[in-house]
């Protein structure tokens, strides 16, 4: 198939960027989206042009590193990661616009590569159980109802790619933060410090400059791992409880 | 310097070595711990757990990863599970049994004392991970669920659906982030190690490149820990992540660390085959598929291009069932892999490029119904469809083996320290625990055992005994290393040749796979040893790396890694050439039984091969660490 | 990190409200609670006004009752004003943060899986605010036509029935009212369901119920309020 790509090119975070149009001819429908860019890049190098920079690593949908907004949708038309999207999802002759994640807290580093370290800093603010190595009780000392363990797992499958932020009209990180708050609150090991955690992580999220949740559900629709909006509702509950306890208790 | 391999195995019976070691080891005064700087490179299961634990203990840690976040390391992609000798099932498991199974699975090429320690701490890993909030699968009782994995006779594998690696890594990542917040760990993401610095023979620092700004920086420390994973990408196509590379361990090797057993490479029989020249990586499909799928290829060459459905039953060759009647489609990984290679070499492979065999579910669907198959493997069939566009309920899947894990790595002693004092190596990057082959669900166990429980103890012993003072990055050793790194980068950027880095990598990969892959011969290895240096020379004359050094430049990153693979591949071939036997993940066609089984030579090859670097284009020197078995008796495996 | 928590704890002495005010989630609670208050108000407002279909006597008596106690009347008015003020201030502040959170927008394509009502909730809210101001000028302050407030019925009460009738006799005004009610429909069809999410009361299981409640009640509000205007326009209320 033959395609036209409109790709965001930007030399560095300090410089201005613009769209550049590339011709992507003889593309196999069996290529993954990233392999298609690999091919385009190899051809660019042959022509003496610098390759398009983009983040990627595992290429099997789990590391969360790949991150392209394809025709306005994070990770493209299927609810999966960009690395798992294949060219058969596109029509011959189509023009595809490729942009980086757009959010103030995710500055563009080059072309399609953005800095997502804000997510790491949010985790640093409380997205863990405060347990050090050694001294943990036997794994079976505290039974966890299967339903809770399953729901915790569902929240914990977040890959931290940032598609939720990229999709949200407000660039809100609520789905990401609430997935972590939910994952840990649903387990007895994490529930102990759930209030402190919720207060700290939300404060950090605000400080990093993410927008607010207006409950549109774009994040859930764009999430390659199907993280549910229920997690946001759960965090809203936990946070309310924490605020009240913090002020009266 | 002359090298003596001292594995520092504690005395006494194998089962009590680890407790004896801990009783005897020197401790670092808690108040002094913060005076010791530790560099940890790599933040997968081993690196993240080690950095977090060292931070908790009070050491000052600097952690490095080339990805944008420590959470991305490729441990995250492990699907199956993690072994632990908990014996929660009451099915006869024990530390000894896990130890024995691991030694046997490694084809008697692993060091007993290390493996026993691994089995001992396996139980602590599960406790630790549960306490961190890892959502392991549970039963309705609320207790942890287990399954049997990789043909083990006991159910000792803990799992979190098909994403165990992800959940364990996130647990370790969170522990690491907690220490970053506490100020004990300083994290450097998007930073790649480019060299190791030795001062007075001790590893005292590293040289890195900031992948965003391109700045070359030096970091000094009291010790350096490498947790930089395996070298599967020397084959270009593997199930590894695109960024996985040998650079850190290879740089250490060139600075004097011995590289052990590089020829032990594990092949996974069920991966989705290559669909064309554009292929950038291979995706593993769970081996459990072989429980209900039948493997076949057409009997006649002329049938290979036809749709599977048009090939009559009598024209199909169910070659695993034919060759291994008792195991059939469940033949061990390496046997199934080699059999697939053979039929494809015969020209009877299917799919694009003819490198694939069918894994057919038609019989099982007829027998059990489509719903039952969907229930068992639905997610895998979906994944297959997403990648290939084919519906495996209606037509057979296509499979081909791929490189999956590498058992070799830098040589380390019982304390996980390489022969270079102060240079520790953990996880897949070292060679120590899996011998010639790794059992399913043991990689995660080893990474976390090293990081949480072994290294944080043994490194203290090193600090307590060493007299190392602080070193400054202004020393000439650091300045020289920076200069070397910059020279190399400038060289890469100035070649301005005609071929892209990817083209060289792909060429190297094909050569390695064809000649040093799952079936090796003296001839094929000789050919590889001739071709690799040629390709390497061509690379340094004809590669085209655009852009500058002081910017985000992915082509430059890749070029540096491929340049190292071009040197490392040769060592792998030397090791395969030297080892004139077949064992585990190393198969020499000259050394097999009549049934195509690996034929070990315990009399002559029961040793660890540890290679010393003598310079590029120089023959490396082989050092041998004999493997002495006190606890178990060597035995030949049989899958008849 | 530690500092922000200490700030939170320090603020606790200044009270819950201040804490709410200073966090994004807290502000969402304020939006939700004030939104809920306004939602209940518009329902009561409509139910009261629908008495117009029961005749002038009933409506005028109801209006007189509302105004009979100055304390209650002004209490309610000030309360409503405060709620509206909080709702709008919070909305504008959140919108400011949201705009800053995406300094560069996307060049291509459609927004991901969000509805028109969701994306335009701030705009619909602002137009509704303009409408409220007009509505107050129109019927409460009599700025549009001062004679409307002077109307009296046979018993000397303010003739609200006639005021409404005369007030909607201008088709332009009536159309503006209907358009505004349409925007309110849009606003509430997302807002009402959303407020339950903000308060953490919505889940996959209940989202359908809340969505139906939001859309259904918004539609009823639209129909009920518009009915009054249309009835006047078509001469059904004389």
Any overview of this molecule?
The complex is a heterotrimer of chains A (249), B (640) and C (238). Chain A folds into 2 domains: 3-110, Beta-grasp domain (Ubiquitin-like (UB roll), Roll); 116-248, Orthogonal Bundle (Fumarate Reductase Iron-sulfur Protein, Chain B, domain 2). Chain A is built from 9 helices and 7 strands. Chain A has helices at residues 33-46, 117-124, 146-156, 163-167, 174-185, 188-191, 194-208, 218-222, 230-248; strands at residues 3-10, 17-24, 69-70, 73-74, 95-99, 108-110, 113-114. The radius of gyration of chain A is 20 Å and the shape is elongated. Among the domains of chain B are: 270-402, Alpha-Beta Complex (Flavocytochrome C3, Chain A, domain 1); 476-605, Methane Monooxygenase Hydroxylase, Chain G, domain 1. Chain B has 17 helices and 19 strands. Chain B has helices at residues 17-24, 30-33, 45-57, 95-105, 112-132, 164-182, 247-254, 319-323, 333-345, 362-368, 370-388, 443-465, 476-494, 501-516, 522-542, 554-578, 602-605; strands spanning 37-41, 60-64, 82-83, 157-158, 185-188, 191-199, 202-210, 216-220, 223-226, 259-260, 265-271, 294-298, 316-317, 357-360, 397-406, 409-410, 423-425, 607-612, 621-626. In chain B, helix 3 runs parallel beside helix 12. The termini of chain B are far apart. Chain C has one domain: Fumarate reductase/succinate dehydrogenase, transmembrane subunit (3 helical TM bundles of succinate and fumarate reductases, Up-down Bundle), CATH 1.20.1300. In chain C, helix 3 (24-49) crosses helix 10 (171-198). In chain C, 32% of the residues are buried. At the A-B interface, helix 1, helix 2 and helix 3 of A face helix 3, helix 5, helix 6, helix 11 and helix 12 of B.
The tally of beta strands of chain A, per DSSP, is 7
Give the full name of the CATH homologous superfamily of the domain at 270-402 in chain B: Succinate dehydrogenase/fumarate reductase flavoprotein, catalytic domain
Shape of chain A: elongated
Q: Beta fraction of the residues of chain B?
A: 5-15%
Structural class label of chain A: alpha+beta
For the largest beta-sheet of chain B, the strand count, sense and barrel status come to:
5 strands, parallel
CATH overall fold name of the largest domain in chain A:
Fumarate Reductase Iron-sulfur Protein, Chain B, domain 2
Q: How large a portion of the residues of chain A is in β-strands, by DSSP E?
A: 5-15%
The CATH homologous superfamily name of the largest domain in chain A equals Alpha-helical ferredoxin
Q: What is the level 1 CATH name of the domain at 270-402 in chain B?
A: Alpha Beta
Low confidence ranges of chain B: none
Rg of chain B over CA atoms, rounded to whole Å, is 24 Å
- Any guess at the CATH architecture of the largest domain in chain A? Orthogonal Bundle
| Interface with most residues | A-B, 77 and 83 residues
**How many separate helices of chain B?**
17
- Across the major sheet of chain A, the strand order is 2-1-5-3-4
Distance between the termini of chain A: 65 Å
Instruction: Report helical residue fraction of chain B.
Output: 25-40%
* Largest sheet data of chain A: 5 strands, mixed
Average residue-wise pLDDT of chain B: 95
């Amino acid at each position: 198939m033959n395609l036209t790509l409109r790709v965001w090119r930007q030399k560095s975070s300090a410089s201005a960027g613009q769209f550049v149009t590339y011709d992507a001819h003889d593309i196999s429908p069996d290529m993954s989206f990233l392999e298609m860019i690999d091919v385009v890049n190899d051809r660019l190098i042959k022509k003496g042009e610098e390759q398009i920079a983009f983040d990627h690593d595992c290429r099997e949908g789990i590391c969360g590193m790949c991150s392209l907004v394809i025709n306005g949708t994070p990770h493209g038309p299927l609810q999966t990661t960009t690395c798992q999207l294949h060219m058969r999802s596109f029509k011959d002759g189509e023009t595809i616009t490729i942009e980086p994640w757009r959010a103030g807290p995710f500055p563009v580093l080059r072309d399609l590569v953005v800095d997502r370290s804000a997510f790491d800093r949010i985790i640093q603010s409380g997205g863990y159980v405060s347990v050090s190595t050694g001294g943990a009780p036997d794994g079976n000392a505290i039974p966890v109802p299967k339903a809770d363990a399953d729901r915790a797992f569902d929240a914990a499958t977040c890959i931290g790619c940032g598609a939720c932020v990229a999709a949200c009209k407000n660039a809100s990180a609520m789905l990401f933060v609430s997935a972590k708050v939910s994952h840990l609150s649903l387990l007895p090991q994490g529930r102990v410090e759930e209030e402190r955690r919720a207060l700290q992580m939300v404060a950090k999220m605000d400080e990093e400059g993410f927008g607010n949740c207006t409950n549109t559900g774009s994040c859930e629709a764009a999430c390659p791992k199907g993280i549910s909006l229920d997690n946001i509702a759960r965090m809203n509950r936990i946070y309310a409880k924490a605020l009240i306890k913090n002020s009266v208790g | 310097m002359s090298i003596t391999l001292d594995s520092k195995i504690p005395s006494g019976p194998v089962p009590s070595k680890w407790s004896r070691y801990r009783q005897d080891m020197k401790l670092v005064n808690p108040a002094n711990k913060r005076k010791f700087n530790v560099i940890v490179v790599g933040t997968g299961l081993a690196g993240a757990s080690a950095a977090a634990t060292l931070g908790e203990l009070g050491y000052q840690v600097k952690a490095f990863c080339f990805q944008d976040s420590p959470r991305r390391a490729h441990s995250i992609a492990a699907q199956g599970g993690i072994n632990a000798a908990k014996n929660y099932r009451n099915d006869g498991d024990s530390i000894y049994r896990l130890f024995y199974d691991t030694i046997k699975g490694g084809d008697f090429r692993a060091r007993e004392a290390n493996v026993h320690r691994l089995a001992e701490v396996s139980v602590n890993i599960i406790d630790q991970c549960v306490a961190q909030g890892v959502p392991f699968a549970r039963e309705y009782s609320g207790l942890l669920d287990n399954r049997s994995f990789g043909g083990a006779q006991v159910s000792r594998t803990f799992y979190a659906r098909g994403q165990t690696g992800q959940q364990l890594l996130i647990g370790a990542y969170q522990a690491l982030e907690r220490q970053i917040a506490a100020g004990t760990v300083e994290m450097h993401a998007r930073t790649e190690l480019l060299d190791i610095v030795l001062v007075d023979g001790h590893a005292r620092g590293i040289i890195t490149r900031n992948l965003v700004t391109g700045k070359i920086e030096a970091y000094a420390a009291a010790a350096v820990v490498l947790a930089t994973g395996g070298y599967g990408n020397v084959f270009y196509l593997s199930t590894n992540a695109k960024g996985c590379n040998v650079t850190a361990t290879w740089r250490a090797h060139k600075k004097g660390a011995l590289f052990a057993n590089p020829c032990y490479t594990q092949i996974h029989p069920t991966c989705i085959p290559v669909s064309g020249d554009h292929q950038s990586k291979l995706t593993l499909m769970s081996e459990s598929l072989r429980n209900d799928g039948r493997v076949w290829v057409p009997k006649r060459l002329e049938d290979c291009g036809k749709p599977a459905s048009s090939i009559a039953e009598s024209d199909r060759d169910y070659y695993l069932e034919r060759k291994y009647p008792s195991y059939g489609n469940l033949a061990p990984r390496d046997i199934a892999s080699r059999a697939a290679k053979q039929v494809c070499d015969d020209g009877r492979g299917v799919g694009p490029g003819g490198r694939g065999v069918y894994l057919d579910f038609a019989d099982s669907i007829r027998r059990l119904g489509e719903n039952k198959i969907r229930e068992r493997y639905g997610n895998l069939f979906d994944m297959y469809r997403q990648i290939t566009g084919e519906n495996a309920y209606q037509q057979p899947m296509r499979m081909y083996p791929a490189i999956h894990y590498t058992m070799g790595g830098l040589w380390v002693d019982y304390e996980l320290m390489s022969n270079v004092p102060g240079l520790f190596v953990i996880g897949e990057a070292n060679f120590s625990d899996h011998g010639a082959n790794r059992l399913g669900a043991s990689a995660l166990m080893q990474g976390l055992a090293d990081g949480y429980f072994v290294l944080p103890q043994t490194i203290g012993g090193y600090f307590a005994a060493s007299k190392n003072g602080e070193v400054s990055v202004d020393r000439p050793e650091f300045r020289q290393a920076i200069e070397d790194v910059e020279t190399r980068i400038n060289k890469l950027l100035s070649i301005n040749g005609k071929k892209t880095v990817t083209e060289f990598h792909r060429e190297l990969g094909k050569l390695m796979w064809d000649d040093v892959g799952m079936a090796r011969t003296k001839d094929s290895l000789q050919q590889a040893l001739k071709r690799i240096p040629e390709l390497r020379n061509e690379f340094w004359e004809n590669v085209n790396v655009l852009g500058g050094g002081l910017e985000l430049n992915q082509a430059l990153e890749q070029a540096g890694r491929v340049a190292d693979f071009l040197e490392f591949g040769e060592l792998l071939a030397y090791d395969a050439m030297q080892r004139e036997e077949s064992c585990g993940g190393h198969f020499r066609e000259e050394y097999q039984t009549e049934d195509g089984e690996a034929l070990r030579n315990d009399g002559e090859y029961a040793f660890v091969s540890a290679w010393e670097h003598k310079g590029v284009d120089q023959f490396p020197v082989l050092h041998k660490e004999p493997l002495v078995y006190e606890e178990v008796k060597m035995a030949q495996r049989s899958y008849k | 990190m530690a500092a922000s928590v200490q700030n939170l704890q320090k603020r606790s002495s200044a009270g819950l409200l201040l804490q709410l005010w200073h966090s994004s989630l807290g502000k969402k609670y304020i939006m939700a609670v004030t939104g809920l208050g306004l939602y209940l108000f518009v329902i009561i407002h409509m139910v009261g006004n629908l008495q117009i279909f029961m005749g002038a006597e009933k409506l005028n008596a109801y209006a007189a009752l509302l105004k009979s106690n100055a304390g209650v009347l002004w209490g309610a008015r000030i309360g409503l004003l405060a709620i509206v003020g909080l709702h709008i201030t919070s909305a504008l502040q959140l919108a400011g943060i949201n705009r800053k959170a995406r300094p560069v927008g996307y060049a291509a394509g459609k927004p991901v899986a969000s509805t028109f009502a969701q994306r335009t909730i701030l705009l619909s809210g602002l137009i509704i605010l303009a409408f409220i101001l007009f509505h107050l000028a129109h019927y409460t302050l009599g700025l549009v036509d001062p004679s409307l407030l002077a109307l009296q019925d046979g018993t000397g009460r303010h003739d609200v029935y006639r005021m409404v009738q005369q007030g909607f006799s201008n088709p332009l005004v009536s159309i503006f009212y209907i358009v505004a009610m349409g925007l309110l429909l849009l606003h509430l069809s997302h807002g009402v369901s959303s407020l339950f999410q903000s308060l953490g009361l919505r889940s996959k299981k209940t989202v359908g119920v809340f969505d139906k409640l939001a859309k259904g009640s918004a539609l009823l509000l639209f129909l009920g309020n518009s009915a009054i205007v249309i009835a006047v326009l078509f001469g059904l209320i004389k």
